[in-house]
Specification:
This protein has 147 residues and is α+β, with helices and mostly antiparallel strands. It contains 2 helices and 7 strands, in the order H-H-E-E-E-E-E-E-E.
């Protein structure tokens, strides 16, 4: 029978490497959505986009996630919504018959109008529904040229 050489400190090297990578990304200004680009597959949650008067309302379905698991970023003239839904395996000898929900990293991007008021975007996350409201700046009315 082979001898088992178990080192309780072996996992610390991996942890140190991961912390070094995260620190380097923070110094370089790497954002959470930039990190998702390294993943091979991303799913896109269902969304509704409604324009009402002076606002754009984006509603994204994210059941099973918490507010701290979702990232909102404005990049240029785009609103990015990203995160990751982890797959949590049932304890014991569970055999899955059907898996229809998406797991892993997700991302959606929404173009923003040139008159979007980027400083006053608000978001509410309730019961698995993220509602992002993007107000639009009022455009000055043109005076008629009577001549």
């Amino acid at each position: 029978m082979g001898k088992l050489n178990w080192n309780p400190w072996a996992g610390l090297d991996d942890l140190r490497d991961q912390m070094d990578r995260l620190l380097e990304e923070a110094i370089q200004g790497v954002t959470p959505t930039d990190r998702l680009k390294d993943k091979g597959f991303m799913w896109a949650p269902a969304a509704d986009v409604v324009e009402t008067g002076g606002t754009l309302v984006i509603q994204v379905e994210l059941p099973g996630l918490g507010q701290d698991e979702v990232t909102l970023e404005v990049k240029g003239r785009e609103l990015w919504i990203a995160g990751e839904r982890p797959f949590v395996r049932e304890a014991g000898e569970a055999v899955y018959q059907v898996l229809e929900r998406s797991y892993g990293p997700f991302a959606r991007k929404f173009p923003l109008a040139p008159d979007a008021d980027l400083k006053n975007i608000s978001a509410v996350f309730k019961n698995g529904l993220l509602t992002v409201t993007v107000p639009r700046r009022k455009r000055p009315k043109k005076l008629l040229d009577v001549g």
